[in-house]
Specification:
single chain, 208 residues, mainly alpha, 10 helices, 0% strand, globular
Length: 208
């Protein structure tokens, strides 16, 4: 095994563990809030459910609302982001954005539970919806960073905002449609909805 691999492995394992704790706290917060209500759920409850201390909780999230919304610091998997930035996988921006967002939908069983919990929380607690709306602003910035890295030059804030909005609409509708049929793949649904969105720009065949 090369020395560099031995040196990087512990760092990679620590990063994976940190990421898992981040997600575990988010899911625990959502489950407890659905079960008990937002106000009746405490940081102590969330930390206990994951097996960490409240102090550790605050190393990951500032508030319980932040935990409910979850991490917004990434789009897609690290490998998918690298492929996207280097111009892949197809070279067509809309297709590649869809592929990148879809890479977040794994494992699908966990994603389905997460989505179901979010739907219940938004129905019951307007503050949660406000939290997700604020997270959307952060996601626009992340999309802008990815587009800039891919283009090799800055993209406009308007373009980044439009791209993020289109992808949010596509993924939201795909998730809602797949929720009605649990046998339907979330990844397939997002690609199908991207194809439907593309039909909005079809030009009718005039026969010429």
């Amino acid at each position: 095994m090369p020395p560099s691999t031995r040196a990087e492995s512990p760092v990679g394992l620590r990063a994976q563990k940190k990421r898992q704790t981040l997600l575990d706290l988010c899911m625990a917060a959502r489950r407890l809030a659905v079960e008990r209500g937002f106000d009746a759920t405490t940081v102590e409850d969330i930390a206990k459910a994951v097996g960490v201390s409240p102090r550790t909780f605050f190393n990951y999230y500032d508030t319980k609302l932040d935990a409910l919304v979850g991490p917004i610091e990434e789009i897609g998997t690290p490998q998918a982001r690298e492929t996207f930035i280097t111009g892949g996988p197809s070279g067509m921006l809309m297709h590649d954005l869809t592929w990148l967002f879809a890479s977040s939908f794994a494992p699908e069983e966990e994603m389905r539970e997460a989505i179901s919990l979010v739907v219940e929380l938004i129905k019951a607690e307007p503050r949660v919806l406000a939290g997700f709306m604020a997270a959307g602003v952060r996601q626009e910035a992340l999309v802008g960073e990815l587009l800039t890295a891919r283009a090799g030059e800055p993209v406009s804030a308007e373009f980044a905002s439009l791209a993020a909005g289109v992808m949010t609409a596509i993924t939201t509708r795909a998730v809602m449609s797949s929720a009605e049929d649990t046998t339907r793949s979330l990844t397939a649904a997002i690609h199908e909805h991207c194809a439907m969105a593309a039909r909005l720009f079809d030009k009718p065949d005039d026969g010429n």
